[in-house]
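Give me structure tokens for this 164-residue protein.
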Amino acid sequence: MESLIREWMAIIKRVFFNIKETGRELELSFRIWSGLNGGGRPREMTMSIDRAEFGVLDTAADDFYYLAMAALETHELLDENNEYKSYILNQLVEAFRLVDFTNKKSEAYYKSLQTALDYLRDRFKGQGKPGVNVTMLGHTHIDVAWLWRLRHTREKDCKVIFYS
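Here you go.
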């Protein structure tokens, strides 16, 4: 079941449009992968999208959420004696005090999220902290189907490598 969930989550994509696109009519095209219907002679297949959702993303709210989550997860991973453990928690507490939770759909709420985000960004700049070297290595699992045509395999490989 876990592998099925992971496979499904890999399919779900978020697409963001610039604010300048708001109010304009857009034509969207989707590429749907289906394999080769079990092999044999290719035939015309009808496919459909069962569900599509649209929403408006407030970038300050999104950035605040992910920065706060990263800070909280870092706090939880640090040893009790680490000098930054209490600092991180104190900054998170102060940032959340800046958020106006009285009406979560109000303009004041979203403005306060921007204020809290600015606060966290300022506190987590890393000034005066010891130098840290971060080494990263990307990895992807290219799971191509044995019944795919070569052109589909190449297209899928290029897409996976580009987005990894």
